[in-house]
Amino acid sequence: MERATETALTELVDITDEVVAAFDHLVPQLSSSSPPPSVDELSQMAADPNIVLLAARDTDRGEIVGTLTLAFFRIPTGLQARIEDVIVDESARGSGIGEMLTDAAIDRARAAGAKAVGLTSRPAREAANRLYLRLGFEVRNTNVYRLKL
Description:
Layout: E1 7-11, H1 17-30, H2 39-47, E2 51-58, E3 63-75, E4 78-88, H3 97-112, E5 116-118, H4 126-134
Parallel strand pairs: 4-5
Antiparallel strand pairs: 1-2, 2-3, 3-4
């Protein structure tokens, strides 16, 4: 009988070589057009009180197998939270890590007093979209615009 893998969630505060290597490995699995963040960029994010970097570690392998970025911002209608760049390593997909990370982000947003948590997900990411709907996210009737700079 196969033993279930244990996963521990942590907030990334200290940016070590291991953390940089994890992002170097994970980011290309999400985006082929964006390079992984540098140690300085990760350090800036970790030090920013409006950003929470969450990591999922496979305790059996001792490796970071997933990350999620939660960003807070205040607008005139209230404190908002946004989930960005949810990445689960290909080898660990389907094991509940994305759900664990997202649940933890929702809990953090709720504790901070956020009015809502937003996210976007490409339609091709079918499993992720099913997860977000199952967790109670609703598809908004809106246009999403982006201007590349």
